[in-house]
């Protein structure tokens, strides 16, 4: 019985992968992410044509040209180079925030789901209250307390995502908790900590990792939002949201200042969302063949 | 039914109380000293103490909490730590701009989202379906500020049809509507991408139901089947969705207020976060949470209106 349920679970993962690869949107998204966005971030120093912070007053606000493909900004910095370096910042903040959120959310969700009863009741109530706020406002609240800057931004976005991740982790833990192997662990006198992290965690991690792509999209858009508002990445570090922000002053005169970084955000988030589209197919057994 | 409604209404203030408590705790317990943040890390200890005293931060936590809470119950949210203006007054002044934006935005989102969703569902796996789904996927990946800026650029600078900034004159309805159009259209288009996806999938599920086949089999025309039988039933998930996405509506309204310089509570919130105005941030967070709670209450209560099968417990 136990073994059957387990192989069923494994088989359902295999089916999930097949559903993912059948989804054209998801495959295009994965290609976009892993063959375009990630390499740009990794090889930023090699491919960026200019130093992103190199100011040349005589070249300020030049239209896109063969030398400066996407034009220059108000300090004469090359927009394309700043976008390329900004890719790095966006991905680091996005991934960093998701990692923090996954860590905290998993610990909370595991604890709530594993212990159940009163512990679960209290944690779920608190999580639900946090979830009644939009992530943007939660993040704003944390930034209000901690202040701007890269480190605080990653932490704030991570904390803002935590309640949502905890909910998923809790659900997955509850679905695992009833398995006989958990009972067996307890029967041999294993500590709760060991059961939770050595035996349950590996089983729920797939569910969490799969949802991670959707949270990455959220985290990147949040970073862009905060930087656009002026509460995220501070100049001179190039970030897409902050480039759009400083381009607003030249809305009509130099639209390349804000359109191109804006489109970069769109492309990165779109890549994650397209992957997420396939991931949803994986997670929803009804849609599987 | 009456009992259910009463219980839900009774529970609302309790939820709000819990929300306020959590916000209060997060703002006080989180690492970071507000006084240092306001004055900078080189401020003298006396100056820091003085700031703490005026902010009431030198009192014990429970006393601060009791004072804030009793103020909240009296409708007195305290004074702004920066401008010393009444927080309640500032929020009351800004709130109409935000509510206008959210209502008009929801109107546009339903106006575009539902027909688009129906179209993509009916033309499943044909050109219009792929086109519509691509557009809505792009819509949900577009930062709302980018769409807002594009709107401003096209319809306010290139073709000056709409005013670019501000919320319009207070007494002048025409000016307010004129200022509202572009921001609410932006908000509506972003929301429409969620609504159309949901309408599509919910309509697709319903079109496979037996009663649709029966309706078609007894010779009803397709139009009537879709509008009278299928669409009525896919309204329930749409109502849920409007409730579920109120968070995204709020988040995008904040950004759009910043882009269009609308003097709503979103812009007030952003300004207060910049100034570290804790009391203001705490109050606006509570107002937003109240919006979420009330909209969820209303959506829960309207289920029965769209679906007579819903039993209230």
Describe this protein's structure.
The complex is a heterodimer of chains A (289) and B (313). Chain A is mainly α and 289 residues long. Chain A has helices at residues 2-22, 24-42, 44-47, 79-115, 117-131, 135-146, 150-177, 180-187, 192-229, 240-247, 256-283. Mean pLDDT of chain A is 85; it is low at 285-289. Chain B has 313 residues and is mostly helical. Chain B has two domains: 15-73, no CATH class; 94-306, MetI-like (MetI-like fold), CATH 1.10.3720.10. Chain B is 78% helix and 0% strand. Chain B is globular. In chain B, 37% of the residues are buried. The model of chain B has no long low-confidence stretch (mean pLDDT 82). Classes of the chains: A mainly alpha (289), B mainly alpha (313).
Per DSSP E runs of 2 or more residues, the count of β-strands of chain A stands at 0
Bin the helical content of chain B.
Answer: over 70%
CATH C-level name of the largest domain in chain B: Mainly Alpha
Strand residue content of chain B? under 5%
Order of helices and strands of chain A: HHHHHHHHHHH
Main sheet record of chain B: none
The greatest interface here is: A-B, 44 and 47 residues
CATH superfamily of the largest domain in chain B: MetI-like
Summarize the structure.
The complex is a heterodimer of chains A (289) and B (313). Helices cover 75% and strands 0% of the residues of chain A.
Which tags fit this structure?
heterodimer, A: 289 residues, mainly alpha, 11 helices, B: 313 residues, MetI-like fold, 2 domains, 13 helices, 0% strand
Topology:
The complex is a heterodimer of chains A (289) and B (313).
Chain A: H1 2-22, H2 24-42, H3 44-47, H4 79-115, H5 117-131, H6 135-146, H7 150-177, H8 180-187, H9 192-229, H10 240-247, H11 256-283
Chain B: H1 2-29, H2 34-39, H3 45-55, H4 61-73, H5 87-122, H6 127-141, H7 144-158, H8 173-207, H9 210-217, H10 222-244, H11 246-260, H12 265-274, H13 278-306
Helix pairs in contact in B: 1-13, 5-6, 5-8, 5-11, 6-8, 7-8, 7-11, 8-10, 8-11, 9-10, 10-13, 11-12, 12-13
């Amino acid at each position: 019985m136990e073994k059957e349920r387990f192989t069923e679970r494994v088989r359902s993962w295999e089916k999930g992968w097949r559903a993912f690869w059948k989804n054209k949107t998801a495959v295009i998204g994965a290609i976009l992410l892993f063959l375009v966005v990630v390499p740009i971030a990794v090889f930023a120093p090699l491919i960026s044509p200019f130093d992103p912070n190199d100011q040349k007053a005589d070249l300020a606000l030049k239209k896109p040209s063969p030398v400066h493909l996407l034009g220059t900004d108000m300090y004469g910095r090359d927009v394309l180079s700043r976008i390329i370096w900004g890719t790095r910042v966006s991905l680091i903040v996005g991934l960093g925030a998701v990692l923090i959120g996954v860590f905290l959310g998993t610990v909370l969700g595991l604890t709530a789901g594993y212990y159940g009863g009163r512990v679960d009741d209290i944690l779920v109530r608190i999580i639900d209250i946090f979830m009644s706020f939009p992530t943007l406002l939660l993040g704003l609240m944390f930034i209000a307390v901690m202040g701007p800057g890269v480190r605080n931004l990653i932490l704030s976005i991570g904390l803002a995502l935590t309640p949502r991740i905890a909910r998923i982790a809790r659900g997955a833990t509850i679905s695992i908790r009833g398995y006989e192997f958990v009972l067996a662990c307890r029967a041999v006198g294993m500590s709760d900590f060991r059961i939770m992290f050595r035996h349950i965690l590996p089983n729920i991690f797939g569910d969490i990792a799969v949802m991670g792509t959707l949270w990455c999209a959220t985290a990147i858009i949040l970073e862009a939002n905060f930087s656009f508002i002026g509460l995220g990445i501070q100049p001179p570090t190039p970030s897409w949201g902050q480039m759009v922000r400083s381009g607003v002053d030249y809305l009509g005169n130099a639209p390349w200042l804000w359109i191109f970084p804006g489109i970069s955000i769109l492309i990165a988030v779109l890549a994650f969302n397209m992957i997420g589209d396939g991931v949803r197919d994986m997670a929803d057994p009804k849609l599987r063949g | 039914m009456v009992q259910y409604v009463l219980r839900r209404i009774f529970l609302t203030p309790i939820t709000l109380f819990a929300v306020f408590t959590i916000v209060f705790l997060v703002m006080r317990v989180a690492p970071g000293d507000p006084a240092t943040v306001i004055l900078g890390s080189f401020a003298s200890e006396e100056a820091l103490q003085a700031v703490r005293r005026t902010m009431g931060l030198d009192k014990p936590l429970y006393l601060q909490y009791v004072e804030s809470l009793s103020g909240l119950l009296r409708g007195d949210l305290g004074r702004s730590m920066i401008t010393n203006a009444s927080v309640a007054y500032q929020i009351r002044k800004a709130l109409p701009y935000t509510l206008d934006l959210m209502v008009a935005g929801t109107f546009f989102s339903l106006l575009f989202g539902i027909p688009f969703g129906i179209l993509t569902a009916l033309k499943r796996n044909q050109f219009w379906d792929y086109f519509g789904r691509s557009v809505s996927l792009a819509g949900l990946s577009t930062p709302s500020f980018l769409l807002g800026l594009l709107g401003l650029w096209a319809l306010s600078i290139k073709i000056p049809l709409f005013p670019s900034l501000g919320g319009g004159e207070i007494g002048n309805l025409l000016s307010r509507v004129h200022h509202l159009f572009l921001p609410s259209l932006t908000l509506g288009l972003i929301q429409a991408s969620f609504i159309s996806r949901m309408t599509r999938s919910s309509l697709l599920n319903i079109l496979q139901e037996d009663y649709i086949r029966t309706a078609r089999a007894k010779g009803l025309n397709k139009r009537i089947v879709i509008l009278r039988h299928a669409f009525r039933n896919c309204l329930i998930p749409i109502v849920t969705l409007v409730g579920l996405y109120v968070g995204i509506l709020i988040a995008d309204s904040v950004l759009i207020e910043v882009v269009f310089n609308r003097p709503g509570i979103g812009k007030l919130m952003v300004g207060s976060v910049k100034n570290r105005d804790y009391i203001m941030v705490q109050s606006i967070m509570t107002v937003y949470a109240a919006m979420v709670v009330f909209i969820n209450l209303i959506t829960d209560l309207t289920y029965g209106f769209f679906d007579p099968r819903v039993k209230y417990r």
